[in-house]
C-alpha cells in the first residue's frame, strides 16, 4: 500500500501544485476526515478540491469521523499522543473494507511538515501494516499570510521564529528574536504581551471565502482582532488563523 500525504495549501483550489493534482488523480482511495457539524465546511472544501482534479468516477472518496482529544487527560503531550493513536486507528478502520486499494491519498491543510501531525499518525500506521509513505508539499499559511499582506517574513539578514500560542503564553517573547509567526493560537495569546513597539499582521480563513485580514500597531489592531475572531468563529463554527508579530528595535533599518 502507498500512502501519500498531499499538502493543499489553505483551502483555495488554485494553491494546489501540479504534483498534488497528479497524486489526487492517481489515487484509488481518498480519505476525507469529518470533524463534526460545526466544521463541515472543511470537509466540503476538500471534496471541492477533489472534484476539480478528478474527471471520472475512478477515485473512491471515503469519509471517516475524526476523533477528538480527551480533555480529561491533564498532560498536554500525553493528551495529544493518545489523540494521534485514536486517529491512526480511525484510518485503519476506514481502510479495512478496501484491501484492494493500493494508492491512498489524504489531503492535508498547508504542508504536512509544518505544525501538522499527519506524518506522526502515518508512522503509527506503518507499524500496523507495511506501506510506502510519500509526501507532496503544499503552500503554508506562513507564505499565504505574507503574500496577503505583501510583506517579507523576515527583516534583512535577520531570523524569525515560528511558534505556537501556548508557547507564547507560557514562555513569553523569546530573547534574541524580533519577528514571531504564531500558529495554533485559540486564545489570542498576543494579549499577554506588552504591546509597546510591536506590530501585528493577522489573517483568518486565508485563501478561502470570507478571508479576513488586519494589521497595525498591536495596541490598536489587537482589540479589533480579538473582536473579529470571536464574532466570525461564532458565526462559522470554526476558525483557522495565523499572525506575525514584529518588535521595533533601535537597530532595525529595513523591513
Automatic annotation (TrEMBL):
It is an enzyme of class 2 (transferase). SUPFAM superfamilies: Tetrapyrrole methylase. It catalyses: precorrin-5 + S-adenosyl-L-methionine + H2O = precorrin-6A + acetate + S-adenosyl-L-homocysteine + 2 H(+). Residues 3-220 form the Tetrapyrrole methylase domain. Keywords: Cobalamin biosynthesis, Methyltransferase, S-adenosyl-L-methionine, Transferase. Pathway: Cofactor biosynthesis; adenosylcobalamin biosynthesis. It holds the Pfam family TP_methylase. Its EC number is 2.1.1.152. This is Precorrin-6A synthase [deacetylating]. It comes from Paracoccus acridae. The gene is cobF.
